[in-house]
Amino acid sequence: MDFKGMRGKPRNEAPSNIMLAVLIIGVIVIGVILMLLVRVQRGLLGIILAALASGLLIYWLREVRSIVKQEFSSDGVNRSKPEWNYDLMEMKDEVTLVADVPGPEEEIKVQLEGEKLEIRGGNNFSKTVKLPKILNILNTNYLNGVLEVKLKRDVSKK
Predict the structure, then answer these.
(1) Helix (H) and strand (E) counts for the chain?
(2) In 3D, which of 58, 59, 55 has the Cα closest to residue 47?
(3) Which domains does the chain have, with CATH numbers?
(4) DSSP label at 155?
(5) DSSP string of 35-70?
(6) Does pTM surpass 0.70?
(7) How far is CA 142 from the centre of its chain?
């Protein structure tokens, strides 16, 4: 069953490059503060403040390294696979499925085979959801990367 509804756009997640840039800027700011403290504060207070700033700088450098190791493999390609988000809400005679599905709208297809609902979308997206009982599709709606499928209990197969 092909679904034709409102055109939606897949959600874009914030790239990890922004997070990395924020950490690097933080490290630079801490380095500048360290240099200013050593120049301005002479004596024991300056040494204590410089030691604290150095400890904070080491902490941030370790954090940046661990984030880079988590996000990227040795060849620089992001290997993390995002989880697929969906909700299956059961009422007395109806079931509603709400799921994140990448578009475009022309590529969204919903098929029902017994107790399995197959959802296909853009970027070779394909997922199957096991339903609690045999159901019929009432309607489907796709908006801004979110697919909503309303299903009703099949009275012919009691």
Answers:
(1) 2, 7
(2) 55
(3) 86-157 (2.60.40.790)
(4) G
(5) HHHHHH--SHHHHHHHHHHHHHHHHHHHHHHHHHHH
(6) no
(7) 19
Task: For residue 137, give the amino acid letter.
Answer: I
Query: Using alpha carbons only, what angle is made at residue 15 by residues 14 and 21, rounded to the nearest 5 degrees?
Result: 110
Kindly report the number of other CB atoms within 10 A of residue 123's CB atom. Answer: 9
pLDDT band at 126 (very low <50, low <70, confident <90, very high): very high
Is pLDDT at 93 greater than 90 in this prediction?
Answer: no
Sign of the Cα pseudo-torsion (16, 17, 23, 26, in order): negative
| Rg of the chain on CA atoms, in Å | 26
Pairing state of beta strands 86-90 and 125-130? Answer: unpaired
CA atoms in the 13 A half-sphere facing the CB of 27: 15
